[in-house]
Design brief:
The complex is a heterodimer. Chain A is of the alpha/beta class. Chain A is built from nine helices and ten strands. The longest helix of chain B has 27 residues. The chains are: A alpha/beta, B mainly alpha.
Chain lengths: 266, 337
Amino acid sequence: MHPAPAAESAPLFETINVSKAFGAFKALSDVSFHVNDGEFVSIVGPNGAGKTTLVNVVTGLLRPTSGEVRFLGRNIAGIGPVELARLGMSRAFQLVNIFPALTVRETLAVAVASRLRRVANPFRSLKRDDVLQADAERIAEVLGLRARLETVASTLSQGEKKLLDIASAFALNPSVILLDEPTSGVSTGDKHAIMEVLVSAAKAAGVRGIVQVEHDMDLVERYSHRIVALQEGSVLADMPPEAFFKDPAMIAAVVGTRPQTLRRIP
Amino acid sequence: MSNQSIDIAPEAVARRAAPRPNGLWALLGLIAVMAVMPWIASPYALLLMLPFIGYSIALLGFNLLFGTTGLLSFGHALFLGVGAYTAAVLTSKFGVLSFELLLITAALVSGLISLVVGALCVRYTRIFFGMLTLAFGMLFHSFLFKFYSVTGGDQGMRVLRPLLLGMEWRGGKTAFLTGPFYYYALILFALLGLAMWRITQSPFGLHLRAIRENAGKAAYVGVQIFRMRLAAFVISAIYGGIGGTILAVTTGLADPELAYWTHSGNLVFMAVLGGSGTFAGPAIGALVFVVLQDFVMSITQYWRFVMGAVLVLLVVFMPQGLSGTIEALANRRHGGR
């Protein structure tokens, strides 16, 4: 655990009474949570609690039915991913989300090129753009992908692909990063390695807030400053991990009660 | 973070190499060979090279859309038609004979039309994009076909011999086409090839490739999907218009068939034949297509059947096209994967 920062200034990022309905189904109802400068917040909850919907709303992929998403004092509900990236919020995905045929260098260069606004002139050289290339290399370095710069993404290992996805989120120099299960589909040993890289990279890159959706309670306990627990689309609890993990009812609600017997297939 | 180990495979494991800049050299090599052809080849062969150049230029653009951005247009012959009819209208109706003016106008008109057509089409991808482009191609073809008074209908429109760099050529038609016009078109091909190479090697080109690979993710790293796709569409249309102008001057005729959907299909065929995954592939496809079509047409009237069979064999046995297959063979010889 890293020491939690003082939370006196206005939040870096917050949702205010966000609701999202898909037809008659209410995926989120009146969800309010915030992230302070320097905080690592984990969103937890059983399957179907609305975690991914919340991330999708927050990152502008879905427009909330009602409510506000405020980032740096501005309502960003439904502004769309490109504008969001420009404002300084980036996202890594639950499933491995890469550009299969691009190399690690190229993948990072895509994000750096958008940040440095290098695409208006179609005749500008990519290879000779030293500023852009150095920036891509710096990000690869921070996320431990330096040795893989010229490797095609589809041939990376699962753990490396996850890192690359996270790295391209970092390449936007974001102030907030949203991670939807950054370590899903990765072996337990690698999970901690990825989280360590991520946290130290965030520090090095000046990321001011991290929001993650995570199932692995071990990771949640170890890295978050605060836990926001969702249940059936509503906020069940918003508390520091120490308090959260002391409360067995909380853990049962979030991790879910395991089925007593697994149904056998005859 | 020095002792982090994230199941990084050892360096020795063979990995697919990043694309090397041999595509440009392949194209320039081809152009160099063509530059000496007038000394060794027959006028007939040279006349066959002109449509090849026209198609190759169009395909450079087509492949920016197809190979690089991942949008398969089934209506790209529309822009060949626009280029050809621009040349026809300017030379026969307005007496504009400067080839440079024809090219610039064709590029402008294609660019403008593609801006409108593209704005409607690039919101969709895959089959929906293909069908929409096909529809616009058919629409344009019908316009050419039905507006007899303007376009000459199925008779087409004459394209007069243009002035190259303001100079008039007094010799015969074949001498003009295989002499000055051949070199003019070849140099244009080289310049447009270089320009397209730069486009594919730019941050802009990288964004197009990112869209092809994963548009959903691309948006999250700040790629402006719609704007980039539209830009690729417009550039490809400009190349198509220029290619169409060369085709029309070669035949001396702007024909509605140029914009017909089977002609769009031929463009797709050439790109697949040569391999859309490489820079020079579509040009190689155009060369093989033009030569093969000429050869097969000379021996049988059922040439469409033969070309169809070639396409089937190609898709089954060489899905990477000729250039992709050659590359794979070369890699195998060099001990790579």
